[in-house]
Amino acid sequence: MTTASAPAPAKPRFTSVKWLICIISSIGFAFDIYVLLVLPLIVRPALQELGNLAPGTPQFGDWAGRLFFIPAVCGGIFGLLGGWLTDRLGRRRILTWSILLYAFSTFASGYATSLWMLLVLRCLTFVGVCVEFVAAVAWVAELFEDRNQRERALGYTQAFSSIGGLLVAGANTLAITYADKSWMPGLVIPHSLASIFGTVSDPHAPWRYTLLSGVIPAIPLILIRPFLPESPAWQAKRAAGTLRRPSILEIFAPGLRKTTIVTTIMFACSYGAAFGAIQQLPQIVPRFSDVKAAKSAARVAGKPEPALKAIEQAAAADYAKVQEIGGLLGRFLLAVLAVRILSRRSLMRVFQLPGLIVMPLVFWAFGARDNTVLFDVGSAHITWAHIGIFACGLFTVAQFSFWGNYLPYAYPMHLRGTGESFAANIGGRLIGTFFAMVTTTIASRLPISPDLSKPQIALAGATNFAFTAAGVALFVYVVGSIACFWLPEPKGLDLSE
Length: 497
Description:
Elements: H1 16-50, H2 58-89, H3 91-109, H4 115-143, H5 147-178, H6 191-197, H7 206-212, H8 218-224, H9 232-240, H10 257-276, H11 281-284, H12 289-300, H13 305-338, H14 344-368, E1 373-377, E2 380-383, H15 384-410, H16 416-443, H17 454-483
Antiparallel strand pairs: 1-2
Helix pairs in contact: 1-2, 1-4, 1-5, 1-7, 1-8, 1-13, 2-3, 2-4, 2-16, 3-4, 3-8, 4-5, 4-16, 5-7, 5-13, 5-15, 10-15, 10-16, 10-17, 12-13, 13-15, 14-15, 14-17, 15-16, 16-17
């Protein structure tokens, strides 16, 4: 006699609240990347205006490195504290305060009157972003009981991070195009505060408007996210009195030590490739043949120096858009594969092994070869550099979404925010972003002939940046690929424990 098998449990309904959570989370992830990726686009003109620093000089490289790395140190340290607070006080509450912090600091940075003021405000922005990312990943993961729904929610909401990169590149393009129009109000510090902070030397500088635009995506987050539900699993444990107190030392206990160390190293390598190579592209584009041709035509037409700088900035924004389109495709591809490839190591290697070959070769080519125009598309054109940076974005940026899908399974609930925060903030933001400073420091100190003219020195500096970025990319990809052999597979799919 046979007995009928029990029917499979019904999949939880995807309610309107869950849809709203996914939409708001998508905006949040997009805003995180928006305010982080604005720096590579504005660092060159900001250093020239606030510090009167010339590209290619050691002073320029030192300050560029500080603006990349010191905020990352602050973000890593306070982000780790934020992860602990996420486990202690709840996901939603920490999300709300982190949004307020980086919305304020992002808005204020557009009014920076000195390099030190810009640096302090970028530190506050980084702290807010580092805390928000960890809290948001834990929050979204615990709101979905079904594994497939959870993987898709984490994958597709994080894919909007690349939308944030596209938006900031677009905002930079708009700022360059319209910043000097007569109908733009200009960024002026009120007289009551000018005695403390100083005055804005160029109220219509495009880089200022680009920074200021970062506050726009924060508006819906501030208005809606505080009213969305807390993680039901975390709230239930807290109400029952069974939620254990989080401890940073506990993530190094024997059962979790390997996970913590390996994920921290690999997260650092993912960020090292992005910040040590990809985000240095604005320093490299001045040597591209299409940019040099546009500047040469502008000089013949008698255009002033600001117009030549605007050509470089517009080119950097254009290549950043292409890179982010590649990253967007990579994130969506990972979201699709995450529910089909159960082995997390295999899923990571889909992007890691091709990146190991592509990244160093592309940046070496940026320094060694001319940037040939392949074909024209209307008034624009497609070059080898467009194709190369697209591939770099696809293989590297997808890894960030991988960590958002992997880390929630790696730690128990009372350590989820703490463990995620250590890997993301100490590994990614602090150690990984340090490679931006490595690149800027080495590139700005490679030998350049003193007999060259100022424009030739700038071009030689751009070439040095390309070769240094290639070396950094090779190093972090080799280390990450080796560390992947020890990446633990998650023990279970239940996030309620």
